[in-house]
Amino acid sequence: MKVAGLGFKRDVTLDSLREALAAAGGPAGLSAVATVSDKAEAEALKQLARECGVPIRAVPANVLAGIDTPTQSTLVAEKFGTGSVAEAAALAAAGPRARLIATRAISQDRTATAAIAEGDGP
């Protein structure tokens, strides 16, 4: 199972999410997109999931906390307890033995990040 994890600001646009996903490797072969639970209902994310033909996996913030990620953001670590929401969400949603195949990529406007993980599923 291949999952794209997405981190984004509340005012993110569909274009910014697309751009971050493309920079991380694109939507080909994705089984799902994932993000922190409190952002799973964002309209731009729902539009992206529909475009890609995949479900959204909402990952509780307490599950993201403590997931070790190669990318480290001080702001994200203070708020979520992990270095990258995108990387942690991808890893959590792809299953217990998941591994990142694309580390965090950032949209040019810096409102969206994406990372891709592969795993055996939840």
What's the gist of this structure?
With 122 residues, the chain is of the alpha/beta class.
Keywords:
5 helices, 122 residues, Nucleotidyltransferase, domain 5, alpha/beta, five-stranded mixed beta sheet, 25% strand
Word description of this protein:
- This protein has five helices and five strands; from the N terminus they run E-H-E-H-E-H-H-H-E-E.
- The chain is an alpha/beta fold.
- It has one domain: Nucleotidyltransferase, domain 5, CATH 3.30.420.
- The protein has a five-stranded mixed beta sheet with strand order 3-2-1-5-4.
- Helix 1 links the parallel strand 1 and strand 2.
- Helix 1 crosses helix 2.
- The radius of gyration is 12 Å and the shape is globular.
* The CATH homologous superfamily: CobE/GbiG C-terminal domain
With strands numbered from the N-terminus, the spatial order across the biggest sheet is 3-2-1-5-4
Shape: globular
Q: How large is the radius of gyration?
A: 12 Å
